[in-house]
Write a structure and sequence with these properties.
Heat Shock Protein 90; alpha+beta; 5-stranded antiparallel beta sheet; Beta-Lactamase; rod-shaped; 12 strands; 3 domains; Helix Hairpins; 12 helices
Length: about 500
C-alpha cells in the first residue's frame, strides 16, 4: 500500500506533537502536585505549631495533671476546640497509641478513623508522618508536653480542592492539546502539501528529462534544499541537452565525413580513370609516329612532322604531370605555404608582365585596372592562380582579342575579375569546368595543350585562402571569372 509523503510527514508531526504534549502535561501536572503537597505540608506544619501552643496553654492553665491523664480527661474536649480553631478534623493520640479524643463525628474515635497504625508508630518516634485516606490527607505530628512528647496530633486535611484543580488542569491540557494538535496537523498538512507539490514537480521534471524533453527553467524556486535540488536538476538538464546536441553534431559531422570519403573515393576512381585516359591519348599519338618512323625512316617530311607532333605531345604530357603533382601537393599545402600581406595591384602587374609576351605572340592585349588593396595570401599561390587563368584566357581567345583584369574593394572584400573575348563557356558546361580533366572543347584543348587540370587547381588554391571563384555571366563573347578574398 502506497502512502504519500505529505501523509507520512503529517502523521510524524502528529506523533511528535502528541509525545511533546504528553511529556509536557506529565511534567506540569507532577510539578503542580508536588507544589500542592509542599504548600499543604507548610500549612499543616503551621497548624501543628498552633495546636501545640494551644495544648500547652490548656495544660498550664488548668489543674496540673500527669500528661497522659491530661490527655485522657481533656482529649475529646480539646480535640473539638482545636478543630474549631484550625478548621480541620483533629484526633489526639496518647503516648501508648490509643486515641485520646477526636473531632470526627460522634462515637468512639477509633471507629471513626482509618487504620493509621504504621504512620502513628512513626509519629510517636518524634517524626512527621502522613498518609492518604480517601479524599483526605492524614497528617500526624508529635504533640509536645511540658517536658517531652506526650502523644500525637492528627490533622485531617481534605484534598478535594487540590484534586479539582488538578482535574481542571488536566482537562485544560487535554482540550488545549487536542486543539493544538488538530491545528498543527492541519497547518503541517498544508505545508507538507506544498513541499510534496514541489517534489512532484521535481519528479515530473526528471521524467521529462528521461524522455529527452529538456526543461527551460528550474521546476521549483525555493530558498531551501528543494530549491537547490531544482537548480541541480535544471543544470543537469542543460548539460545533458548540451551533451546530446554535441553528440548529434559529432554524429552529423561524422556522417558528412563518411559521405565525403565515399565521394572522394568515387572521385579518386574517376580521377585515376581520367588520368589514364588523358595520358593514353598523347602516348598513343607518340607511339603511332614511332611506328611510322620504323616503317618510313627515310621520309624527310614524315620525320619533320613526327618531330613536331612528338614534341607537342611530350609537352602536353609534361604539363599534365606537373598539374597532377600540383593538385597532389595541395594535400600538404597548409604546412608548406607562407601567407603574408600581399599588395594586390603590384602582384597583378607582375603576373601580367610574365604573361604579356605569350599574349603578344597570339596578337592579344592584356589590360589591368587595379585599386589599392591588400590581402593575406601566399605569393606563390597567387602567382599560380592568375598564371593559370591568364593562360586559359590566351589559349581559348580569338586572334586580336583582349584580356581584362580588374581589381576593386567592395564591402571588406577584394574582388578580382579576369575576362577575355574568347570562345566562352557553354551553359551546359558551366557546372563542370572546375572538375579535374574536364575540357569544354577537347579538340581545341588538344591543339593548345590544355589538360583540364588548371581550373581545379585554381579553385583549390583559392579556397585554401578562404576565397571563392565563380564564372559570371558575360554580356559579350568570352568568359569572365570573379575571385573574392577577405580584405585586410
Amino acid at each position: 500500500m502506497r502512502f504519500s509523503i505529505k501523509l507520512k510527514f503529517s502523521l510524524f508531526l502528529a506523533l511528535l506533537l502528541t509525545l511533546a504534549l504528553g511529556v509536557l502535561s506529565f511534567l506540569v501536572l507532577r510539578g503542580v502536585e508536588r507544589n500542592q503537597i509542599a504548600q499543604t505540608e507548610i500549612y499543616l506544619a503551621q497548624h501543628v505549631k498552633t495546636v501545640n501552643l494551644r495544648v500547652k496553654q490548656t495544660y498550664y492553665t488548668g489543674t496540673r495533671l500527669e500528661p497522659q491523664a491530661f490527655l485522657q480527661q481533656r482529649g475529646r474536649t480539646l480535640a473539638g476546640e482545636l478543630a474549631g480553631f484550625t478548621g480541620l478534623d483533629v484526633t489526639l493520640y496518647a503516648a501508648d497509641g490509643r486515641a485520646a479524643g477526636t473531632s470526627v463525628g460522634e462515637g468512639p474515635a477509633p471507629e471513626r478513623t482509618p487504620d493509621v497504625s504504621a504512620a502513628l508508630a512513626y509519629a510517636l518516634e518524634g517524626k512527621i508522618a502522613y498518609q492518604r485516606a480517601g479524599g483526605a490527607l492524614l497528617y500526624l505530628a508529635p504533640l509536645q508536653g511540658p517536658d517531652e512528647q506526650m502523644g500525637v496530633v492528627q490533622l485531617r486535611y481534605p484534598l478535594g480542592r487540590e484534586q479539582s484543580f488538578q482535574r481542571t488542569l488536566l482537562n485544560l491540557f487535554l482540550t488545549t492539546g487536542a486543539a493544538v494538535l488538530v491545528l498543527s496537523c492541519l497547518l503541517g498538512y498544508l505545508y507538507f502539501n506544498r513541499a510534496a507539490a514541489a517534489i512532484r514537480r521535481l519528479k515530473t521534471a526528471a521524467e521529462s528529462i528521461r524522455r529527452a524533453e529538456y526543461i527551460a527553467a528550474p521546476p521549483v524556486k525555493r530558498r531551501d534544499e528543494l530549491g537547490e535540488l531544482a537548480e541541480g536538476i535544471f543544470y543537469m538538464s542543460r548539460e545533458i541537452e548540451s551533451s546530446i546536441a554535441a553528440k548529434d553534431e559529432e554524429q552529423r559531422k561524422l556522417q558528412l565525413a563518411v559521405n565525403k570519403l565515399q565521394a572522394l573515393e568515387q572521385q579518386q576512381k574517376q580521377y585515376i580513370g581520367n588520368i589514364s585516359h588523358e595520358f593514353k591519348t598523347p602516348l598513343t599519338s607518340i607511339k603511332a609516329y614511332v611506328d611510322l618512323l620504323d616503317m618510313y625512316d627515310d621520309d624527310p617530311e614524315l620525320l619533320r612532322d613526327a618531330k613536331q607532333n612528338i614534341a607537342k605531345e611530350t609537352e602536353r604530357l609534361y604539363q599534365m604531370v606537373e598539374k597532377v603533382l600540383q593538385l597532389t601537393a595541395l594535400e600538404k599545402y597548409d604546412f608548406e605555404s607562407r601567407a603574408e600581406l600581399l599588395e594586390v595591384p603590384a602582384a597583378l602587374r607582375d603576373v601580367c608582365g610574365r604573361m604579356r609576351g605569350k599574349a603578344e605572340r597570339f596578337g592579344l592585349t592584356i589590360t589591368l585596372e587595379a585599386e589599392p588593396s591588400r590581402i593575406w595570401m601566399d605569393p606563390e599561390s597567387f602567382m599560380h592562380i592568375f598564371i593559370n587563368l591568364l593562360d586559359n584566357a590566351i589559349k581559348y581567345n580569338i586572334p586580336g582579342g583582349i584580356i581584362q583584369l580588374r581589381c576593386e574593394t567592395v564591402e571588406h572584400e577584394v574582388r578580382i575579375t579576369v575576362a577575355d573575348s574568347g570562345i566562352g563557356v557553354p551553359a551546359e558546361a558551366r557546372e563542370k569546368i572546375f572538375e579535374p580533366f574536364y575540357t569544354v572543347n577537347p579538340d581545341r584543348s588538344r591543339q593548345s595543350g590544355g589538360t583540364g587540370l588548371g581550373l581545379p587547381l585554381v579553385r583549390n588554391l583559392v579556397e585554401k585562402h578562404k576565397g571563392r571563384i565563380v564564372l559570371l555571366d558575360s554580356a559579350d563573347q568570352g568568359a569572365m571569372f570573379q575571385l573574392t578574398f577577405p580584405a585586410v
